[in-house]
Amino acid sequence: TARRWALDICELRKPWIKSLYKTDKLEPLGEAREILKFARAQARKQAANLEHPLVCIDVIEEGIISGPRAGLWKEANAFQSLLFSDTCKSLLHVFFSQRATSKVPGATDLGLMPRKITKVAILGGGLMGSGIATAMILSNYPVLLKEVNEKFLNAGIDRIKANLQSRVRKGKMTEERYEKALSLVTGALGYEKFKEVDLVIEAVIENVKLKQQIFADLEKYCPSHCILATNTSTIDLNLIGEKTKSQDRIVGAHFFSPAHVMPLLEIVRTQHTSAQVVVDLLDVGKRIKKTPIVVGNCTGFAVNRMFFPYTQSALLFVDYGMDVYKIDRACTKFGMPMG
């Protein structure tokens, strides 16, 4: 059909339309300029330090004002200059780094298959616990949420509801999907139902003694294959698992707040953590649409380890008497959303 069509055009039986010069879909120049002005403002707001979205808009504008051929020339030249920019090199680095996260020497190269995780328990329904629970139910994992009393448990479930309702309001989720997701959460005040879970994520306050007690309890109540994970951001995992005999299945699953939104997940392994547990958590991380990175059990793991000098240098300027707001503005302008 395509060949026939080409011959028909060649033999003038079908009209010859040069698509490059079709302008019937373009708004009048004044209107087009307003649209482009709005697009530029949006691009600056979304990515203040990126040049290429603005270059794309410039190219479109050139095509509208000076004609399609001029637009194509500008596109070719602009592409060539962007190709050698630092931003381009950095974005390529990010692209390949994200893909490299799934290859972990000593874990993913052993031919292990991830085990099926059918039920997840989360200890603590605070900001982190409820966020992790939300991320899990959004990917259809049934969740058992444990709290110390009825009041805290209800507050945790209310936080999960609020997280889901926010998605409904933004049009990312239907009411029907909301009801289905919420039905995957079960509340608990004790450990009775923990005998049927495959993964536990502890998300209580950063208190060593409390975490040690929790992990000693988990070892008693959970099945022997169950992965025992902690969402700690600062505490040594060997210390957390000190009072257990299950150090091969203790692992860090460090989410970032808000846990159902932020894409990063640090999987922290100690020298005892089994490769199978790492492979299982990498699989869960991908299923809940996170970018999992496997890191060692050291002070600050990976993210806070990078964050320490960032905050230290800011505080050093404060000690030298610099205006706090000025430092904060510099950080924000550089691209750190929290300043």
TrEMBL record:
Instruction: List each copy of the 3-hydroxyacyl-CoA dehydrogenase C-terminal domain by range.
Output: 300-339
Q: Which reaction does it catalyse?
A: a (3S)-3-hydroxyacyl-CoA = a (2E)-enoyl-CoA + H2O; a 4-saturated-(3S)-3-hydroxyacyl-CoA = a (3E)-enoyl-CoA + H2O
Q: Name one GO molecular function term.
A: (3S)-3-hydroxyacyl-CoA dehydrogenase (NAD+) activity
Task: Please name the InterPro entries in this protein's record.
Answer: 3-OHacyl-CoA_DH_CS, 3-OHacyl-CoA_DH_NAD-bd, 3HC_DH_C, 6-PGluconate_DH-like_C_sf, NAD(P)-bd_dom_sf
Keyword Ligase present in the record's keywords: the answer is: no
PROSITE patterns, sorted: 3HCDH
- The entry's protein name is 3-hydroxyacyl-CoA dehydrogenase
Protein's organism: Aegilops tauschii (Tausch's goatgrass)
